[in-house]
TrEMBL record:
One Pfam family per UniProt: adh_short
Organism: Exophiala mesophila (Black yeast-like fungus)
Ranges for domain Dienelactone hydrolase: 275-467
Stated name of the protein: Dienelactone hydrolase domain-containing protein
Record keywords, A-Z: NADP, Oxidoreductase
Keyword Oxidoreductase (UniProt): yes
Cytoplasm in keyword set: no
Transmembrane intervals: none
GO molecular function: hydrolase activity; oxidoreductase activity, acting on NAD(P)H, oxygen as acceptor; oxidoreductase activity, acting on the CH-OH group of donors, NAD or NADP as acceptor
Gene3D superfamilies listed in its UniProt record: alpha/beta hydrolase, NAD(P)-binding Rossmann-like Domain
Entry-linked SUPFAM superfamilies: alpha/beta-Hydrolases, NAD(P)-binding Rossmann-fold domains
Record family assignment: Belongs to the short-chain dehydrogenases/reductases (SDR) family.
């Protein structure tokens, strides 16, 4: 693989500094150009990294800083493969009515317009190498947060910039990453100086997260940024944006189609374990989902022998699957889904509901097919019984994994028998060589699994278009 050249802004501390550290530990990275107005910690790294690290000290809100960073990369390696635009400030913190417009402009110059400087300056070189642009967004861009108006608005503008850029420039890939609540200097500033400006619930929550040691360390999100920058941005997340909203007190991730995609006049209910569709993902586990590592665990290794972060190992050690299932009985999940549907029916939605369920969600997408959906798709469905098919009158699809060890071996024949006895229009397809979870969380480095994952996605979209 060709050695890569990558620019990181906001590189002097927090997530940005962790990104630089991890990039310097990545064998196929020839050069990291680190940009920040404060460079004390970066200067220490130079003595360890030599010519692989170039520091550009400057204000990202001025175009000359972006130009200097790009020229540093091109001058040394002759190429530019990715830019990670991470620079940002928090203030001003105040209600919108009391906001100082000049301070809002200062924040937008750093948090938003600096992105345009970086993107426009780097684009001619990125476009030659199918380059990547990774933007640091924030959860407050997706929901209103008291007194964070300037910061929230700038990050929301970033999200839309991401979506539009992905549509306009197919020669590059771009994504905006929301890293979560990370233990950085920004969070320290919030705890120490903004108790009076934040609403009490948000402030107390942030303080408690820090006291309990539950904030993410910068290295965790930094690893995701590095993976996207060095290995590429998966096609299905390029330019995407979404938000967490409430429908009758049910938390739902609401993903709107990217700019420029032909809109489909239907709403997809994605039941977890869009190609032009508005997609809703309800949290019917109420914040108590299973760790995704369960799907990728090597059964021949103990938890400690797996190459996972220590905190993830501890979570798996105390996990009790039977107890977890008891915490999420059918009656409660059906109640949450019914409440969400009731709220949605009161809105002016375009077209019918379509449903796709994965693993645990497969059972419930068939249940919804009895009264709510116009078409239903399930992949590697778990805990399915014949009762789930009684009363289903709409077209359904079942995508099965040939090597699924988490469902009964009789499931393919059971599905055929149940659908025949209940006169259900069911299409069954088995994906050769696949394991449980392939259609939702494939192994990114396995080209065969990636191909089958893409095939499953295409089958879903085609099925919906045929039956909506």
């Amino acid at each position: 693989m060709t050695a890569q050249s990558i620019i990181v802004t906001g590189a002097g501390s927090g997530i940005g500094l962790s990104i630089v550290n991890l990039l310097l530990q990545t064998s196929n990275v020839a050069l990291v150009v680190a940009v920040d107005i404060r460079t004390q910690q970066l200067n220490v790294l130079v003595t360890q990294s030599g010519s692989r690290l170039r520091i550009v000290q400057g204000d990202v809100s001025t175009r000359t800083t972006s130009e200097e960073a790009v020229q540093a990369a091109i001058g040394q390696t002759g190429r530019l493969d990715a830019i990670i635009l991470n620079a940002g400030i928090l203030g001003p913190i105040s209600p919108v009515i009391d906001g100082d417009i000049d301070k809002w402009k200062d924040l937008f110059n750093i948090n938003f317009f600096s992105l345009l400087h970086g993107i426009q300056t780097a684009f001619p070189y990125l476009s030659k190498n199918s380059g990547r642009i990774i933007l640091t967004s924030s959860g407050v861009s997706l929901r209103p947060t008291k007194s964070w108006g300037a910061y929230s608005c700038a990050k929301a503008a970033m999200n839309q910039l991401c979506s539009i850029l992905a549509f306009e420039e197919p020669s590059i890939s771009v994504v905006a990453v929301t890293p979560g609540v990370v233990d950085t200097s920004i969070q320290k500033t919030v705890r120490e100086t903004h108790k009076e400006t934040l609403d009490p619930g948000t402030y107390d929550w942030l303080v408690d997260l820090h006291k309990q040691g539950k904030m993410l360390q910068p290295e965790r999100p930094a690893a995701s940024f590095v993976k996207l920058a060095t290995e590429g941005i998966p096609e299905e997340i390029r330019g995407k944006t979404g938000q967490v909203v409430k429908f009758n007190d049910v938390s739902v991730y609401d993903s709107q189609p990217p700019v420029g995609i032909e809109l489909q006049h239907a709403t997809v209910l994605l039941l977890p374990d869009g190609s032009g569709y508005r997609t809703l993902i309800p949290d019917y586990f109420e914040g108590d989902g299973l760790p995704v590592l369960l799907l990728h665990r090597n059964p021949k290794l103990s938890i400690d022998e797996n190459d996972w972060p220590e905190e993830d190992k501890e979570k798996l050690k105390i996990l009790n699957i039977p107890e977890w299932i008891k915490r999420h009985p059918e009656s409660r999940i059906e109640e949450l889904l019914a409440s969400m549907i009731e709220s949605l029916r009161g809105q002016n939605l375009s077209g019918p509901f379509l449903g796709v369920g994965y693993c645990f969600g497969g059972k419930y997408v068939y249940k919804l097919a009895k009264s709510t959906l116009k078409a239903a798709v399930a992949f590697h469905p778990s805990f399915v019984t014949e009762a789930d098919f009684e009363g289903v009158k709409v077209p359904t699809y079942a995508g099965l994994a040939e090597k699924d060890q988490m469902v009964p071996e009789t499931l393919p024949q059971d599905l055929k028998n149940w659908s025949l006895r209940n006169s259900v229009n069911l299409q069954i397809e088995t994906y050769p060589g696949m394991k449980h979870g392939f259609a939702a969380r494939p192994e990114a480095k396995d080209p065969v699994e990636r191909e089958q994952y893409n095939s499953a996605f295409s089958r879903t979209v085609d099925f919906f278009k045929a039956h909506q």
